[in-house]
């Protein structure tokens, strides 16, 4: 059995980002840049004030108690069009352009005004409370590199740089097919031996959160013709995810069926818990990941393998999952040869430190406990017992 890290590396090998496309910046959230975003202007576009007050010449304020003649004002959007000379000042506001001749700001708390005379109670040096032209970024500066997923911050800086459009990678299209005679659609009558198909919707949500487009396909029943029919449903897909049926039971037909329609298997079985029967291969050149049918195992494998693969297909270079650290809130037993992922709650202790409290039951069929979990505690193969208060590695589930 492969280790988790080796399996993930083999899945990521050879994955190429989808083709670029141009979208409006308003539709760019969650997309991955295919080209660097370069500033189209200077920000700020000129020297501007960082405070409300008076634009002055620093040379006039080598001492306190200086009296200056007020010659105008410079509100935001309406710059003063004159020049500040010796002994003069201009009323100015946060974000307003500093007029010619001025090189410092006296904040309003340190000045008093009577008619057109302003008396200062501070000294000033050149640049005081002035944001210089291009201080944030200059025209032609790279503000967002290629391969960066756009979030609210990226959208904001691209808009500030005057970009109405952005070049991003196309969202990967991911087919999701669950397998098994026992599955019925949520909401349908559930007969004897049947269960609601939770996995397809759960994985579709993971896929969508990873910036891809899920394509939910019909359930493949436990008969070979259903699996062979998949060959007619693959057009336009960038990846196929199968759920269940990849083990070695009498009715586990997925591997054989996929081989008949062109799958070249890479590996099957991972030294992990939950999620041992993970399958990976290529289906006529398209990447394929087969996750277990057990819902918790399907989620864990989706988090550890499917999401990073989709991040790579979407154009990201640094892919997850991100690993954090926390304080172990309960003792945990020694681990066997499989890397384990324990569902856990997260809390803050009295000192504000993040604490991970594993559930006492870790049955991989208990999906409800997954909804109550904020993290997965990672236990290395053959790890010795760990005690409450020790540090542990976690994958957070509460910040998606």
UniProtKB/TrEMBL annotation:
Q: What is the lineage of its organism?
A: Bacteria, Pseudomonadati, Pseudomonadota, Alphaproteobacteria, Acetobacterales
A Pfam entry, by short name: MoeA_C
Q: Do the record's keywords include Ion transport? A: no
The protein's name: Molybdopterin molybdenumtransferase
Q: Which cofactors does it use?
A: Mg(2+)
Reaction catalysis annotation = adenylyl-molybdopterin + molybdate = Mo-molybdopterin + AMP + H(+)
Top EC class of this enzyme: transferase
Say what the protein does: Catalyzes the insertion of molybdate into adenylated molybdopterin with the concomitant release of AMP.
As for family, the record states: Belongs to the MoeA family.
Keyword list, A-Z:
Magnesium, Metal-binding, Molybdenum, Molybdenum cofactor biosynthesis, Transferase
Q: What is its EC number?
A: 2.10.1.1
Q: In which pathway does it act?
A: Cofactor biosynthesis; molybdopterin biosynthesis
| Limits of the MoaB/Mog domain | 175-312
Give the transmembrane region(s).
Answer: none
Does the UniProt entry include the keyword Translocase? no
Recorded source organism is Novacetimonas pomaceti
